[in-house]
Amino acid sequence: MSELKLADLRKEIDRIDDTIHDLLMERAQVVDNVRAAKGAEGIKLRPGREAEVLRRLIARHHGTFPKGALVRIWREVMSAYLKLQGHLAMAVYMPQPGAAYWDLARDQYGSQTPMTSHASVRGVIGAVQSGDAAIGVLPVPTMVDTDPWWRHIYSRGENTPQILSRLPVASTEKVRGTFEEALIIGLPSDDHTENERYYTALEFNQEVSPRTVLANFAAVGLDVDIQGTWYDESMRDQCLFLIEADMVLTQDMAEMQTFIEKSEATVTGMQKLGAYAVPFTSDELK
């Protein structure tokens, strides 16, 4: 290829770069207009809307540019514009130096978002409740957790956070060489998308086995997963379960009413703890 032809191609790349830059600046102006229209409302996280944007872009994508790179670029772009709308900061659970949650948070919310580390899950939850952070990053609950953090957001109190999303948004992404995951918490949002999973806290007045709870759900035709339990011997009148399902579970559902009737223990509480958009699979990013 001649030097003249290469020079022309480089000019074309420069023209495209300028166009991208112009559009980014134009988008920033639209975001400024949105912020002005909202007034003093400040940042409102919209994880459902963000997931829809990424799915739409992936669906229309073609050519050799990697879809995984497209997702990372747009995550950086969306986070930068979100930061323009107000105070955007992250509180990240870091039980020891080098924990992967820091990298997951940075990948999701960009290089410009301030982050603070917290040695305890209560510190993360407290930072979100107080407004010091708009986003909290916490471990995905497991059945072996002896003091699960999600029980601390089982509350009707003001500014109690909810689960908003799951990291990473692409299930193929590795963090420090391993596939690590985390959940994002923030102030409650009614923003949802089609492909979601929902978390519900279920409270009984006495200890109940997970096997019994799962059997009772299956008996009423509800396919759920138990992602955590909590029972304190000193509080024998409270046994909590973290239920994950592809729908919002409410007490006015016919299936839940039958579930409650069939349960040997009394169901004393039920509350949605949040939801997350299902991450992209490796097949979706091919």
From TrEMBL:
SUPFAM superfamilies: Chorismate mutase II. Pfam families: CM_2. Signal peptide: none annotated. One of its GO terms (biological process) is chorismate metabolic process. Its EC number is 5.4.99.5. Coiled coil: none annotated. GO terms for molecular function: chorismate mutase activity. SMART domains: CM_2. InterPro entries: Chorismate_II_sf, CM_dom_sf, CM_II_prokaryot. Residues 1-89 form the Chorismate mutase domain. This is chorismate mutase. It comes from Candidatus Terasakiella magnetica.
